[in-house]
Structures are given as structure tokens and as C-alpha cells.
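Hey, resending since the last one bounced:
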Amino acid sequence: MRYQIKDKHNFFIREDGDSSMVLFKEKHDQFILNGTGLVMFNLILENNQTQKVLEELKKIYENIEIAVLENDLQDIIRMLKMYGILVMEQEIEENVCKHTDISAVEENDYEKVGRFVEENRCSDFFVAGGKGYYTAVNIRAHIMNNQEYYFYKIGENGKIDGLIIVVPNVSNNSVVNITTLVVSKEKNREERIKIAKDLIDYAMKSMINQVNKLRISFYAKEGNEVSFLGMYKKVRF
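The C-alpha cells again:
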């Protein structure tokens, strides 16, 4: 699959013994790569197709199984996508960014996202974490550890209209778990359905592997009505 590297001048690599640090000039952010990760990172920067990178990796690491190299490469690509360094060409061709108001949550907005979840909890939508769970610290940890992907829709007024949180489908898994989907209470029902559908579509197209199934896991007492399922049916979940 082809990809593009965005603004190579916005980050730099600091090598330090067995590990290297990638630092961003504007975001004041960073991530660490081990020796193998640095090799993969440099090959990704030098090429524009994942297959070419994999072929070079096979030459360098002859004794490592191809499946292991593929999984490691996917992990690196997923991280580079999250940090905005890399974008898959397929996403450009499919015009994934047609929702110019939907994007991955940026670090400066973690606190706003947490407040949005707490202010817009309701029976129409599913939120996995309890009250107080979505703090800026927790959100950052989940994103930095690649545990969850956060995507939000920003309205014309600059406020958050909706948020979806998913567990990425790594290791060639075609199933994506939705852990949270929330839309602003200020929107009417038809607007909320459209925003929810747009968020789901955008999140699914942002996954590394093809998505064949969406999943929601929750607990409910026997006999209790699960009210948010009606909204999910409206978006053809």
C-alpha cells in the first residue's frame, strides 16, 4: 500500500545508544524507538510503499519470520499515522478527509474531550468509562499506548459536536471495538444520527486493516432495556 510522509521538517531524530527519540518541533511531543523500530522508521521515510519497506526488512532481518516483520511494521505505521507523520494514499484516493471537520483528537484538546463526554452522557449513546474516567491524563495514556483511537467532529462554532473512541484492529484483526460514541445534546435527533454515522465511517476508514465487523461490549441487568441500541440501529450498526 502506498503512503505519503507529511512535513519532514516538523520532526527530528535524536539517537542515543540502543534507542532513539523522535521529537516534534511544534507539538513538544515525542516517542521512542528501539533499534529495529529506527530501521523501520528510516525505511518508511525513504520509500512510499509498505511492500518495498517489507522487502528491505526481509533482506536485513533474514532470520525473522515475515509475519513478525509485518506486525512490527503495522505497529510503526499506526503510530506514525497517529502522530500525523504518515498518511495512507488509499485514504487520500477515497477522500477520507472529505469530513474536514472530523480528525484525530489533538493533545491540546484532551481536557475539552473529557469535559464533552461528561457533559453529554445520556441514554442514547454508549460510554464505556464511568464518571471521571475520561481525564486528560487517562486520554493521553490511552492514545500514547495505542490502546484506543479518539476521533472528534468540530462544528462551525469551534465546539465538539461528537466523539468516537475505538480499540484499533491490530495483528490483522478485522474486528473493531467501539468503546465510546457521544454526540452533543444540543443537536436534534436527525443531526445526532448523521454525526454518529460520519464518526463511525471516518474511524473505520482510519484503521490499518480492513474492518469486517464492529463490536460493542457492555453489561446490562437481565430484563433491563438497553436504550442506546436504538440509536445504533438508526446508523445501521
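The chain is about 35% helix and 20% strand.

Sorry for the duplicate.
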